[in-house]
Every structure is written in structure tokens, then in C-alpha cells.
What we know:
alpha/beta; TIM Barrel; two-stranded antiparallel ribbon; about 45% helix
Amino acid sequence: MSTRAIEGTYLRDILANTANEVSARIANISLDEIDAAARVMPPAVDMTARLRSDRVTVLAEFKRASPSKGAIAASADPENVANAYLDGGAAAISVLTDERFFRGSLDDLRKIATLAHATELPAAVLRKDFVIDRYQIAEAREAGADCVLLIVAALDDGELAELFGIARDYGVQALVEVHDEDELGRALGIGATLVGINSRDLRSFRVDLATIERIAARVPPEVTLVGESGIRTREDVIRLERAGVHAILVGETLMRSADPAAAIRDLVG
Length: 269
């Protein structure tokens, strides 16, 4: 774990809690059992192929709460939200599965993946959680995820490379999330081709889209780039598209909307 990067941030508490929860789940259902179930899942949907198009695509996020904002949509139904996202043209759906801090679950992921994969052009599904153990990647695949999130700030170089390889072994992609140029270098160093740039500062919670613009200028053209956090308007999307972003991850704006499908269409124009 990259303790220097997370010292003094909410991420440190989340990761400590995650480690305890993973240990408890392993004691209940072994890695061997989860692994066996994951290995017989149908092939994953290609997240990169869904996100990379001739226009900016939307990775719409299902989340009920966050540490920085508290409750966002506490009683949201995953199937209702997912259907709205698909109706709005979302290329993929991100599902927060952390229970304590984001009020999510693997059951949310299963329900959303079932819907997303049943469409004529299946949408890809991301398990968005704080992945620190191979067990979580096996869980994600067993629950229907096509992609997992790896947060560079949460992992040392060895852990990052190992988990990236494990994801590939399970046939899922990894969205590798970075917050600065140093982390981008580490992501590219393991061969990441799907990179998310988070504009939210881990310590201050301040969101600045200029962070995405600055880091995007250093991303090779073959890498599929996802802009994360603070994206609320069509103008924000145009700004990031000009910076070279291929897809936007949007959660709070959509979860607070009375009409998420229309909100997605408004964002992409």
C-alpha cells in the first residue's frame, strides 16, 4: 500500500476498512470457491471498445453516498437507475460496491450487470471499489463486472503490477486511476491502456478540471482516457474533449437528477 500518498486522506481509512472486510469475506467464502465461479462466467464486455468512439462517451456511475458529500441518493434502486442510464445512451456503468462509505454492494453490481449485458449492444460494467486483493477481482468477475478500478495512490508498484496482471488473467480490464503526473508514469509503466484522471484532490476534496487537462497532455494517443469527478455541464464535457478525453465518469450529477437519461443526453449533446 502506498502509505505516503494516502497519509492524511480519507483513502487511508477506507483502505484499512477494506482490508478488514475482505478478510471477513474470505473467511466466509474461500478464494478457491470464488475463483471457480469467476472462471465459468461468460466473456467480459470490452470496456475500452465501449468507451472509445468518435465522440465522448459516458461511464455513468451508480452510488448512493460518498465520504465527501454524504448521502446522495440513499434509497436509489440499482435497476431503475441502470435502466435510465441505458436509455440515456451510457456506454458503460460504474457501480460503487463499498458498503460502509458509499452504501453499495456486490448485489447492486449483479443486478446492474444483468441489465447492462442484456441490451442489444451490451454496456460494460465497472466494479468501482478499493481493490487491494486478488479476491476482490475474482468477486468482481463472479458478479458480472467487465472491469475493475485500480487506484495508483492506494498501491505500491509491486501491488499495482500484480493486480493489473490478475485482472487480465480473469479476462477483465483495469481502469487505472491517477491524480498527478507521477501516478500517470506509474500507470503507464505497468502497461495500462485504460487510464482515469481524477480531478479531485485526495486531501482537500477540491475539484479542478485543469488537473485533467494538464495530465491528459502527457497521455499517449493509444491510451483510452477517462475524465473523473466534477463533470456537471455540457461545457465541462466540451472542455475535456478538447483536452483529449475519450470518456467521462459522472456519478453525483446523474444520481441527483430527476431524469438521468435526459441528463446524459444533455452532457453529450
